[in-house]
């Protein structure tokens, strides 16, 4: 292997190792303290993405609401959140850490084959639903969703679709739309990106290998939509999103395209009942703050709070649904 490639590879491995070490040190720094004194929130993705947004908004709500003395967010990106999940699984019994999770992670669990899943966590709460959109650059020839689908059906290879992790919710939405529109799923040219920032750069670029259609959570595109650089063709939501002039899948005659990207929090396995109760109470107080209510409105989320055993049962059923959908779509 050329020396430069060896050095680059070692550099990547070193950065990953340092991130994991920093996270472990941060999480363990709260050992022996109550979660009210020091709490770590893991965002299992890079800064700027949806999971990071939830963690940062939660951090702000806990601070302004005087719910927790010290709240820190630690980013552990990679593999649809399953790298963060693996790290959380190694923190058995630590009641001062929670990790953001959601639909994308369940897809990652299905794809990873590692055997580590939600059963290796302590479910705390589902918080809200975050909706997917299909967007194109402002100058795109696709003025409507129908324009896009007609061109896609005529030549799937000529219309590459961009989104997040392979097998994640963006990929599943692309496959659902293709299936509903009569486009063979195996012909879909899907390009995975590390996060919303990388995807938007690709959408706005005219270089070879970039994409002209993107699928992601609305908040990944919001600033560029507001700035007129991107246009939303459709939203995957039961109702139109406030302030966005784009039809829902039901309006477009594709009600079977219905994946919702919910957001939730889980803790390490093996914590005590008292620790679990404390974390649940912290979350209940967090979502009752004005700061959190403003975040829900600003980010166009829909509140969908469930806790404890109800959330645990939801995760079991949702994992089964995602597993079945991935198999059905051939992903």
Give a description of the structure.
The protein is α/β, with parallel strands linked by helices and 331 residues long. The protein has two domains: 3-129 and 261-329, Bordetella uptake gene, domain 1 (D-Maltodextrin-Binding Protein, domain 2, 3-Layer(aba) Sandwich); 132-236, D-Maltodextrin-Binding Protein, domain 2. It has helices spanning 3-28, 50-64, 82-89, 103-112, 145-154, 169-180, 196-204, 218-226, 273-287, 290-298, 308-329, and strands spanning 38-43, 70-75, 97-102, 121-130, 132-137, 161-163, 190-192, 213-217, 230-236, 261-268, 302-307. α6 (169-180) links the parallel β6 (161-163) and β7. α2 (50-64) runs antiparallel to α10 and α4 crosses α11 (308-329). The two termini are 33 Å apart.
Largest beta sheet, briefly? Answer: 6 strands, mixed
Strand content of the residues, in percent?
15-25%
CATH topology of the largest domain: D-Maltodextrin-Binding Protein, domain 2
Physical arrangement of strands within the biggest beta sheet: 2-1-3-10-4-11
The arrangement of helices and strands along the chain is HEHEHEHEEHEHEHEHEEHHEH
């Amino acid at each position: 292997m050329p020396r430069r490639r060896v050095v680059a590879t070692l550099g990547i491995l070193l950065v990953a190792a340092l991130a994991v070490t920093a996270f472990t040190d941060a999480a363990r720094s709260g050992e022996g303290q109550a979660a009210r004194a020091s709490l770590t929130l893991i965002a299992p993705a890079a800064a700027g993405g949806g999971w990071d947004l939830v963690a940062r908004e939660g951090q702000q709500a806990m601070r302004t609401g005087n719910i927790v003395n010290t709240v820190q967010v630690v980013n552990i990106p990679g593999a649809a959140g399953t790298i963060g999940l693996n790290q959380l699984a190694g923190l058995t019994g630590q009641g001062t850490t929670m990790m953001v999770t959601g639909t994308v992670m369940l897809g990652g669990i299905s794809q990873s084959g590692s055997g580590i899943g939600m059963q290796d966590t302590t479910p705390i709460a589902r918080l809200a639903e975050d909706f997917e959109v299909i967007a194109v650059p402002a100058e795109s020839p696709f003025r409507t969703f129908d324009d896009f689908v007609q061109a896609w059906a005529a030549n799937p290879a000529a219309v590459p679709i961009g989104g997040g992790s392979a097998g994640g919710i963006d990929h599943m939405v692309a496959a659902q739309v293709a299936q509903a529109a009569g486009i063979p799923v195996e012909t879909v040219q899907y390009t995975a990106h590390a996060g919303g920032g990388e995807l938007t750069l690709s959408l706005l670029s005219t270089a070879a290998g970039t994409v002209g259609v993107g699928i992601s959570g609305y908040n990944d595109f919001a600033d560029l939509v507001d700035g007129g650089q991107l246009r939303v063709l459709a939203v995957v939501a039961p109702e139109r999103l406030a302030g966005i002039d784009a039809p829902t899948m039901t309006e477009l005659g594709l009600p079977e395209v219905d994946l919702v990207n919910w957001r939730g929090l889980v803790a390490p396995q093996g914590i005590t009942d008292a620790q679990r109760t404390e974390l649940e109470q912290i979350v209940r107080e967090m979502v009752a703050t004005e700061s959190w209510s403003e975040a829900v409105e600003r980010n166009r989320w829909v509140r969908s709070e469930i806790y404890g055993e109800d959330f645990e049962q939801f995760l079991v059923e949702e994992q089964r649904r995602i597993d079945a959908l991935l198999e059905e779509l051939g992903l």
